[in-house]
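About this split. The held-out portion is used to measure sequence recovery: a designer receives only the structure tokens and must propose an amino acid at every position. Recovery is the fraction of positions where the proposal matches the reference. Here is one held-out target exactly as it appears in the evaluation file.
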């Protein structure tokens, strides 16, 4: 039992040259020794064994002095009467914070009730946000505890192994610490499924001799081929770890004997170009197995892993996975994050921030996927992660689900992210057990509980200022618009019911009544009619006059215009004959993608700085546009002389004078042709005409006339 810092210092001295740093590590050792005196492990050994082992693991990964010191001190806050300030004074604020972070995580228990899990994840995330080294020290701590887990009582052992599989193995994986991950996995697997573990290890032992023979043959072959091309290289054979074999057997539903790529052969070369050259040589001399080639050099894995992978079949029918990489790539593959970050400690906050962002985003995903436990066993589910995380926060539901939101988001955004009904009925929020106002800015790690009420009157205009996500804002706006419209429809209904008894109609109005009497170009259903009455665009009396046939449409239009002019303070009749609610002097433009004409159902789109573009409601650009920017617009009936451009596509059979007949028909209807062109395909003519018309009515008549021309078989209005 070595209870001296000798080995740690020796190892550290391989990469830490600063004498002061080495001395500080020695001091930390003496300090831990003093603090843990008279404490013992479950195994009966002095407690000091544990922090020494943890520090050793960290030194193997070549982490910096602060991390190693934190490893030595990681248990003093929890197990001794030491204070934060004391550590901070002796070893610096960073070390004190890391030790405190590790202590907090150590007290977590991830297997308890949903709410506790949420709180635990919250603490993990906070610890990571503050300093990623907390997690690294924690991983080293966990690894040593797993190595000595035999001494724990059965029940606690199983719990720790599960927690290791679900939380710490994925963390090690994400940080690219392959060696750590494999060891944690194998120990946990051994205790969670002893039978499976024993079977695989026995099988491995029984087949070891044969495997080694096969290995020597293939290594000799490859060496020969690479030497011929004078490529400097180093070849290692490596067996997959037990758990990854077990996982593969389960995933592919295969026996041990059927798992063919137990052996990974690793070829280490000097330069990236050599990797590809070696790949070429291997593929030339062995049979590559289709679809097994992967280029992680060109596209590194999310945890920074780089390598070429291929699988080959040897002459005597053996299958090997071959990994080809440079020495630097190999280092990253083995120790992950430590390779980039470890001994630059303190100097590379930027790398650290990037790492933290990546890990946090990934961590959020993991918790979401943890519901489906099998997915934790899938290595590749991390690969598609791209978003820049620093701009986001993670907030928890009381069940421990993670909701990712932009910075500055409020409980309203959170509520709408859960469900739009939760948003609409939201009346308050409890964050970390405290009542907060709806505009409370949420932060990473908060647990947010939305209070709803069925009798809530729903969102108000002020919510639009509070909500930060586009999703919530668009849903609030839609809700408010619909509520306003419903109120106006109700208003219109009241008005029409007041005058209804004077008319023969004296019954409930139906859509069919409206359709029968109304020109659908203007108002197309009962709701719209009621809405316009409610809005005072049209009087109830004139609407009923029209419905009962007592008045001409013209009268109706006159009433409408009169009404509009009366309330014209907020309205404007534009040269295009368009009315826009509440906007004066706004620039209005008829969009030339769908070319609306009077009579077309239309909608306005508020452009960025170009005023309002008016589109047909059916325009594909409108259907896919941001609904927040749509505003109602109406055709005015006053502007009778303005003409509007439309485009027609006419399909005809070929014959003489076809085009002349069409031009004559159009002219006879009083429309101006602006352009015409024809093309033909087989026995068919395609004639495209641009023309100016007054309104939809005129266009409809014109199209009917053209359709009636002999040999015309199709006519459609097109965008251009
Ligand atoms: Mn510990």
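Reference sequence for scoring:
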């Amino acid at each position: 039992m070595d209870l001296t810092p000798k080995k740690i210092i020796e190892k550290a001295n391989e990469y830490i040259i600063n004498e002061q740093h080495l001395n500080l590590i020695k001091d930390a050792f003496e300090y831990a020794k003093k603090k843990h005196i008279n404490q013992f492990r479950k195994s009966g050994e002095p407690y000091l064994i544990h922090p020494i082992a943890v520090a050793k693991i960290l030194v193997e990964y070549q982490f910096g002095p602060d991390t190693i010191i934190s490893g030595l001190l990681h248990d003093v806050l929890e197990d001794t009467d030491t204070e934060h300030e004391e550590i901070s004074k002796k070893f610096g604020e960073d070390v004190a914070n890391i030790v405190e972070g590790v202590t907090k995580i150590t007290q977590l228990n991830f297997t308890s009730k949903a709410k506790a899990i949420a709180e635990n994840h919250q603490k993990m995330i906070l610890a990571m946000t503050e300093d990623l080294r907390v997690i690294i020290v924690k991983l080293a701590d966990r690894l040593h505890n797993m190595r000595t887990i035999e001494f724990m009582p059965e029940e606690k052992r199983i719990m720790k192994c599960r927690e290791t599989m679900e939380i710490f193995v994925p963390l090690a994986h994400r940080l690219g610490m392959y060696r750590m991950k494999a060891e944690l996995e194998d120990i946990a697997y051994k205790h969670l499924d002893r039978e499976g573990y024993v079977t695989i290890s026995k099988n491995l032992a029984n087949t070891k001799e044969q495997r080694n023979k096969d290995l020597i043959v293939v290594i000799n072959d490859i060496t020969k081929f690479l030497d011929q091309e004078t490529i400097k290289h180093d070849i290692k054979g490596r067996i997959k770890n037990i758990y990854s074999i077990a996982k593969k057997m389960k995933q592919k539903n295969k026996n041990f004997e059927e798992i063919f790529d137990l052996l990974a052969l690793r070829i280490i070369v000097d330069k990236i170009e050599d990797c590809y050259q070696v790949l070429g040589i291997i593929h030339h001399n062995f049979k590559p197995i289709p679809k097994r080639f992967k280029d992680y050099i060109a596209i590194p894995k999310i945890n920074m892993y780089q390598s070429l992978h291929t699988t080959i079949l040897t002459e005597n029918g053996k299958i090997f996975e071959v990994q080809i990489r440079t020495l630097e790539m190999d280092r990253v593959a083995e120790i992950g994050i430590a390779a980039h970050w470890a001994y630059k400690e303190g100097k590379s906050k930027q790398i650290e921030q990037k790492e933290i962002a990546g890990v946090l985003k990934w961590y959020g995903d993991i918790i979401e996927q943890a519901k489906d436990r099998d997915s934790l066993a899938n290595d590749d589910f991390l690969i598609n992660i791209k978003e820049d995380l620093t701009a986001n926060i993670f907030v928890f539901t009381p069940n421990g689900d993670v909701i990712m939101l932009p910075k500055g988001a409020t409980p309203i955004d959170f509520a709408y992210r859960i469900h739009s009904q939760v948003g609409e009925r939201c009346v308050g929020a409890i964050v970390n057990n405290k009542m907060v106002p709806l505009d409370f800015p949420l932060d990473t790690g908060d647990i947010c509980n939305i209070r709803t009420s069925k009798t809530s009157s729903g969102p108000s205009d002020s919510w639009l200022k509070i909500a930060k996500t586009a999703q919530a804002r668009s849903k609030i706006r839609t809700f408010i618009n619909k509520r306003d419209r419903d109120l106006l429809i109700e208003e219109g209904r009241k008005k029409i019911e007041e005058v209804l008894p004077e008319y023969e109609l004296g019954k409930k109005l139906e859509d069919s009544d409206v359709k029968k009497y109304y020109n659908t170009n203007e108002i197309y259903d009962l709701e719209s009619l009621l809405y316009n009455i409610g809005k005072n665009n049209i009087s109830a009396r004139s609407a009923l006059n029209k419905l009962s046939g007592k008045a001409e449409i013209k009268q109706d239009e006159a009433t409408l215009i009169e009404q509009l002019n009366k309330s014209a303070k907020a309205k404007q009749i534009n040269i295009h004959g368009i009315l826009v609610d509440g906007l004066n002097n706004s620039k209005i433009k008829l969009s030339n993608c769908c070319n609306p004409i009077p009579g077309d159902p239309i909608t306005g789109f508020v452009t960025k700085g170009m005023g309002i573009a008016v589109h047909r409601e059916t325009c594909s650009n409108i259907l896919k546009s941001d609904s927040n920017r749509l505003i109602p617009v109406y055709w005015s009936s006053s502007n009778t002389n303005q003409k509007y451009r439309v485009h027609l596509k006419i399909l005809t059979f070929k014959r003489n004078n076809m085009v002349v007949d069409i031009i004559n028909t159009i002219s006879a209807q009083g429309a101006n042709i602006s352009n015409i062109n024809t093309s033909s395909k087989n026995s068919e003519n395609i004639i495209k005409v641009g023309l100016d018309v007054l309104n939809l009515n005129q266009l409809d008549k014109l199209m009917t006339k053209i359709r009636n021309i002999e040999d015309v078989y199709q006519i459609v209005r097109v965008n251009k």
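Annotator remark: The pocket of manganese (II) ion is lined by residues 50, 74-75, 141 (CB under 6 Å).
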